[in-house]
């Protein structure tokens, strides 16, 4: 395990102990730059689910005429949420590495906060697939969905995901 993986595992252990996933995103500079944070869904049918949240900022606008969020910003939210989902719910010995990410943009993202949820769909010994959805005001009307594939294998043995 690399030093960065060891450090991340410690941060993850502390975040889990406090049941506060926001601590995990808070130590990732890229997430901070993009305004991405994590929270557990409050009460309701999705209570306790890990959600990625991208707070709106002017730097996220791709089309100032509409205005609409940049596709790359949405992609960053989707990929980050998938990685954080795997880290939060698994006992991985190394940070997941992106193999591929396919994004379907369904509608323009308005200049408001955007939410995302990752759902692991297949767990292998070396590769895990995650489906991610992003929405704004209405979860039933996603603005983008993604299919992500991650390398989760390490020399210490197969990954153990609790899905």
What do you see in this structure?
The protein has 163 residues and is α+β, with helices and mostly antiparallel strands. The protein has helices spanning 3-17, 22-26, 29-34, 71-89, and strands at 36-40, 50-54, 61-63, 68-69, 97-105, 114-123, 127-135, 144-151. The protein contains four helices and eight strands; from the N terminus they run H-H-H-E-E-E-E-H-E-E-E-E. It has a six-stranded antiparallel β-sheet with strand order 1-2-6-7-8-5. A two-stranded antiparallel sheet has the order 3-4. The longest helix has 19 residues, at 71-89. The mean pLDDT is 89.
Give the class from helix and strand content and strand pairing: alpha+beta
Residues in helices, as a percent range: 25-40%
Parts with pLDDT < 50 across at least 5 consecutive residues = none
Order of strands across the biggest sheet? Answer: 1-2-6-7-8-5
Number of helices: 4
Provide the β-strand percentage band. 25-35%
Q: Please tell me the overall pLDDT.
A: 89
Cα Rg: 16 Å
Shape: globular
Note the main sheet.
Answer: 6 strands, antiparallel
What order do the SSEs take from the amino end to the carboxyl end, as H and E? HHHEEEEHEEEE
User: How many strands in all?
Assistant: 8
Q: Termini separation (Å)?
A: 23 Å
